[in-house]
Structures are given as structure tokens and as C-alpha cells.
Amino acid sequence: MSRKNASPRPSLASTLKSRDTEETFDLLFYRPIGYLWALICRRLGIVPNAVTILAIVLGTAGGILLFFGQLSFTVGAIILIVFANSLDSADGQLARMTGQYSRLGRFLDGMCGDIWFVVIYFAVAYRLSQEGWGIYAYLLGLFTGPFHAKQAAMADYYRNFHLFILKGKQQSEWDDSTRLADSYARMKWFPNFLSKLAALVYLGYTRQQERTSPALQKLRALLNKRYGEEWPEEFRQAFRRQSKPLMKYTNILTFNTRIFVLFIVMLLDKPLYYFLFELTVMNLLLLYMIVRHEHICRRFTEALEKEGEA
Description:
mainly alpha; 12 helices
């Protein structure tokens, strides 16, 4: 292909979701590496979903290595998980480079970290059981897991709502359950079994997020009723200013912070501390984030209702 006909090389900045929502460590480490992987995959014609599946396999293999408890295996697990996460970054960057978005891709991308952490949780529980906790180690893991899932789900939801406020629907992955339910109802199980299953799981996931954010749902309903999907720019900018400081909490509750803590406690052979960290620090951050965000939404709703009465 001649240089004249070749598509221009996208910049690193064009593959980011937004500076508002990107974590500092991601910007410094994972995004540059993911960008290089995305360029290679783009050149080879590899689609984002294939990158995600490879990331799932490598991250799961890293989780399995954590079972063994030996330093060499733990270091190997860290290397594999970091490598897998760079690919997990690359799949989204590749999708933004090529415009290859799909609901199945979002589902797989969301499942990527979930699958890793299911294996990781079993590994942590197994290591803890070897310290004399027995079956109680697994029960502690089962008790902790749903809190972890809730933390990640709400962080994802608030971050995508911020992106929606900032960039609009086309550049955000923020969804609502009503539309998802309509889309799900129109799909046939065969020959679209995997896509239909992904839509069903994603619908339940989104409904759970909405139930946890009633003030946000009320604000959204009021805005849609008054303005349709073209929300006023003045509102968008005002809400962005209030929401942006909370993005650091959404970043803490997603991946890097918890994986850093995991690496440290497993290297020190103190697996109990990981579950304790999830149950205390991360839950307190989740509660604070929800309370703050709901408070912001209620304030904007009250202001809009007063405008309507004037």
C-alpha cells in the first residue's frame, strides 16, 4: 500500500477515553504500552475482541500461579497479570482507533477483570486456608467478592456517566436499562446465542447500577423529559465541575490500587490483608463516592425543578 493511501497513524491522545477519567498510572504506564499493542494489532488486522480474549487467558494464568505460594511463582503471576492488563488497555484503544465497538466487546471487556479476580480470590483463599483457616478462608472470599463486584460496577457507572456528560453518547459506554431491555427483546437466541447471553448479563448489571443511584436516575429522567438527549451545555459543564473530583475515587475502586495491594500482600505472604483491605478501605471509599455523587445529583435536580416552577 502506498504511503498516500495508508490511513494516518492515530495519536495516543485519540485512544484515551478522557483526561478527566484516566488514572495517572494508566496514563504513564498502561496506556502507552496499550497504544503500541493497538498499533500492532491494527496493522495485523486483529480485532479488539480477540485481544480481550487473550488478556482473559493470560490474566487467568497469572491468577493460577498465585496458588503456589512460592516467590518465583508469585513474581511470574505479577508479570502475567501486568502483561494481561496492558492488553486489556489495548483492546479499548484499538476499538477507538478502528471504530470497532460492540456490546459483546463491552461485555467481554467487563468480564475480563471479573474472570481474573474470581481466580485470584480462590488463590488468596487457598493461601489463607493453608495458614489454618480451612473452609473459613473460602467463606471469607465468598463474603468479600460481592463487595468487590459492587465497587467496580459503581465506579464504572459513574465514570461512564462523566464521559457521557463530557463527550456525549457516541464517546461514552453509559447505557440505560430501558434501551438495553428493548434491544435484548429483539435479539434471537439462535444464531446469536453468545450475543444474547451477553446482553442478558449486561442488562442485569446495568439494572443493578441504576438501583444503587436513585438520585442520578431521577436527574436523568428530568433532563430527558425537558430536553430529550440534547442536554444543555451549561448543565454539562456545571455537572462536570462537580463530578470531576470524584473520578479519583472511581479510579481507586477499579483495578490498579487493588492489584497493587494484592501484589504486595502476596509477596509478603499475608493473604488475609487483601480481604481486609477490600472490606474496609474499599467499601468506605465506595460509600463515600455514592453519597457524594447522589448529593450532587439531588442538588442539580432541585435547581432544575425550581427553574421549571419559575
